Recover the amino acids of this structure.
């Protein structure tokens, strides 16, 4: 029997990049997967539902749809996100700030809130409950940089919200775990503006050179981590943060000049 067979998963931002890879890996592991997004999904496994993570009404409707059709919810991957243009504190407008926080931070809050409600229907407090929420944050939540001011703030919020959710669910004995994932540079359409400016291969090489391992990551490499956190193999893990970044947050590289 497949590892996740009988389990139901929602992946937000499931039409592209890390979300699309996660949909495939969860489905391969046997889960019934609902991929949600504001842009249509072309091809791929799983049922697609159009869903804007910033809308509380849309979250209520999504949970009603999933519980109505599938009868349960076991896994939520809060993955949908935007870069917001990588502006600094000076160049970012209030409108840009609010848009980034609404999608990257408030969208994850709403996802956790309604997923817990949905997971409680079928699993709350029972030993066999396997509720798992995986929130996609970023290394921008772990180290600062001048560039993405709104993005960094939104991902920092996701990191600590995940711990708050984990502790709340543990205290309530809901049997629901919550963890955050912190990717480094992953080759996905989130970098489309850069690919357009300098070409995909050149851009990929440039970003890859900032990673000690010497390359960008692939969406599946984050999907594998998400799959592990979603599955019962990580059953003792909650409130934790997992980095997959080719060594970026490990420290300074020798070629930075600090050690030779
Ligand atoms: N690619 C990277 O280098 C990287 C690094 C760290 C973290 N992340 C995070 O990984 C997640 C996935 O990003 P990706 O790199 O796969 O980018 P992507 O652009 O390929 O995918 C993001 C998806 O989110 C969807 N989305 C945007 N706004 C939405 C909304 N309001 N409601 C529902 N869906 C919405 C988009 O339509 C898109 O399909 C994001 O949260 C991103 O911040 C990415």
């Amino acid at each position: 029997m497949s590892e996740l067979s009988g389990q139901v998963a929602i992946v937000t931002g499931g039409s592209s990049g890390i979300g699309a890879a996660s949909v495939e890996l969860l489905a391969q592991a046997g889960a019934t997967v609902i991929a949600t997004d504001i842009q249509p999904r072309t091809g791929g496994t799983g049922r697609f539902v159009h869903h804007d993570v910033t809308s509380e009404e849309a979250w209520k409707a999504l949970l009603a749809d999933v519980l109505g059709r599938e009868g349960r919810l076991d896994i939520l991957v809060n993955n949908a996100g935007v870069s917001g243009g990588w502006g600094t504190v000076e160049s970012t407008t209030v409108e840009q700030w609010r848009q980034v926080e609404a999608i990257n931070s408030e969208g994850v809050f709403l996802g956790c809130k309604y997923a817990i409600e949905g997971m409680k229907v079928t699993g709350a407090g029972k030993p066999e409950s396997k509720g798992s929420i995986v929130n996609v944050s970023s290394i921008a939540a772990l180290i600062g940089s001048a560039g993405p001011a709104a993005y960094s703030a939104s991902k920092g919020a996701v990191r600590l919200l995940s711990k708050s959710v984990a502790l709340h669910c543990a205290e309530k004995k809901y049997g629901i775990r919550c963890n955050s994932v912190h990717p480094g540079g992953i080759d996905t359409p989130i970098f489309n503006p850069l690919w357009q400016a300098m070409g995909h291969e050149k851009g990929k090489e440039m970003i890859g050179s900032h990673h000690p391992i010497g390359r960008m990551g692939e969406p599946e490499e984050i999907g594998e981590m998400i799959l592990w956190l979603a599955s019962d193999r990580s059953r003792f893990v909650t409130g934790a943060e997992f980095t997959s970044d080719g060594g970026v947050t490990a420290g300074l590289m020798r070629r930075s000049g600090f050690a030779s």
Notes: The beta strands are 8-12, 32-37, 47-50, 75-78, 131-136, 176-183, 241-244. The radius of gyration is 18 Å. The first strand starts at residue 8 and ends at 12. Residues 12-13, 15-19, 37-39, 52-54, 79-82, 103, 136, 138, 183, 185-186, 188-190 surround nicotinamide-adenine-dinucleotide (CB under 6 Å).
